[in-house]
Design brief:
By secondary structure, the chain is of the alpha/beta class. It has 16 helices and 17 strands. The structure holds iron/sulfur cluster (SF4).
Length: 446
């Protein structure tokens, strides 16, 4: 059971030396209790206290790193049931199944197609992370060969799926350096699969036929010294699988049940008979609460909406996504190019910059810090007021880059034009379109 801040405080040195980065041991204790600090930040905790605190201050759901490289990721580490309570931290990873009897040519083709599913949104590269290599015939050599090909010729990380220990060992040997997830330890093979995971220091999925079954298995495996576990309650019926996800999260967070304090893996690919239904079920598991979602394949019409949903669910609701205040050059502008100004809400920036780029009109885009608010909201909240924007235009240095004194403001902020003129004497303030979609035509008509 997790300790409270006061209980943790009693175990700290109480010297208030500030070396942990906060002014007092009490503040550090509170941060530790809420998962905002690491115990290692205090160099003066006694060994005895460290032992007690390490256990008590561990996150209720263990963060488990999986894979390597640009598609490596961490799952788990969540601290709340509902996103609006704080935030969700580690985004659900997407995997798609590859059968181990796939031909070399088909595997190469599949990986190439999958690799193309990368989407730029708000400055992020959205992409799936894993191939779930499934042993379909007990052929260890074929399994290992496919694992090696995926590990060495693609960015994708792996879930190795087999209930045959010899096949699993061959697969692990072929791609251990990529830190694959071993799927899965069960009642029947927990000792053997636990040993494979321990010997190779790899994360291990644990599958049972109920949550109760999981508890017994995770306790056995953690007793063997394994920590990086991913759990599967075994249900392939949608309602029960959802109930299991919620019950597992609740037991870990509300009841402090460490036996289920691990990220989960879900299999929509085994719950639906068509792509639409599979995608819907996968979407449900992104929201509640799968760490890894395994699909039957990656297709554009399925993975794109899932990636966008994931982006929304795992964005901190307390902090709008922003871009840095400054001058952005689009389409190689020169001293005669138009100047536009807008707010630093990431979505605003990416929509406006995208439209300007699409217009092919070389332009200067000024991004004014509005604390991440969109144009109308920022204007209403006084974060995009005419005098502030005027001061920003003067200070940002755009005047040194252009020969004219014309600036285009967003249509939704037309009311700031008067104050801007006062702050920028000699400048011509032009009210641009309200909708970003109209920017290309507006720029071309200048
Ligand atoms: Fe207290 Fe340790 Fe922080 Fe110093 S470093 S203030 S002893 S918690």
């Amino acid at each position: 059971m997790a300790l409270t801040g006061i209980q943790i405080f009693k175990l700290l040195p109480k010297t208030n030396c500030k070396e942990c980065g906060v002014p007092t041991c009490l503040a550090f204790a509170m941060n530790l209790a809420s998962g905002k600090a690491e115990l290692d930040s205090c160099p003066y905790v006694s060994d005895e206290a460290r032992e007690q605190l390490a256990e008590a201050s561990a996150p209720p759901i263990r963060p488990v790193p999986i894979g390597k490289g640009v598609r490596g990721f961490t799952v788990g580490g969540e601290t709340v049931m509902y996103r609006h309570e704080k935030t969700f931290y580690n985004a659900t990873a997407f995997a798609a199944v590859v059968a181990s009897d796939i031909s070399d040519a088909d595997l190469e083709k599949k990986l190439k197609v999958w690799n193309a599913f990368q989407f730029e949104r708000v400055g992020l590269n959205l992409r799936p992370q894993m191939a779930a290599l499934k042993d379909v015939n007990g052929d260890a050599a074929a399994f290992a060969k496919a694992a090696k090909t995926i590990a060495e010729t693609s960015e994708f990380n792996l879930v190795l799926m087999s209930d045959n220990a010899d096949v699993m060992k061959a697969g692990v040997e072929a791609c251990a350096s990529k830190r694959p997830l071993i799927y899965a330890a069960t009642d029947a093979n927990a000792d053997e699969y636990g040993a494979i995971a321990k010997d190779n220091e790899l994360p291990l999925a644990v599958k049972a036929d109920s949550i109760e079954g999981l508890v017994a298995l995770t306790e056995k495996l953690t007793g063997m010294g394994l920590k990086d576990l991913v759990i599967d309650s075994g249900s392939r019926e949608v309602k029960q699988a959802l109930e299991d996800q919620v019950a597992i999260r609740r037991a870990a967070l509300k009841n402090g049940n460490r036996s289920v304090g691990f990220p989960t893996i879900a299999f929509p690919c085994e719950m639906a008979s068509n792509l639409d239904m599979e995608t819907l079920i996968a979407g449900m598991f992104v929201a509640k609460y799968a760490g890894i979602v395994v699909l039957s394949d990656f297709t554009g019409e399925s993975i794109f909406p899932l990636l966008l949903e994931r982006l929304n669910i795992f964005t901190d609701p307390q902090r709008p996504m922003t871009v840095t205040e400054g001058i952005y050059e689009i389409n190689n502008p020169d001293e005669n190019s138009p100047v536009l100004v807008t707010t630093n809400f990431a979505l605003t920036y990416f929509i406006v910059s995208g439209e300007i780029e699409g217009s092919r009109v070389p332009s200067w885009l000024l991004i004014k810090d509005s604390e991440g608010l969109s144009v109308m909201t920022a204007w209403a909240a006084g974060k995009f007021a005419g005098d502030d924007v005027g001061v920003f235009v003067k200070k940002c240095g755009v005047a040194d880059k252009i020969k004219h004194q014309d600036i285009i403001i967003p249509g939704y902020a037309a009311a700031i034009a008067g104050d801007m003129e006062e702050e920028l004497p000699g400048w011509k303030i032009t009210v641009g379109p309200r909708e970003a979609a109209h920017i290309p035509a507006f720029l071309k008509a200048l």
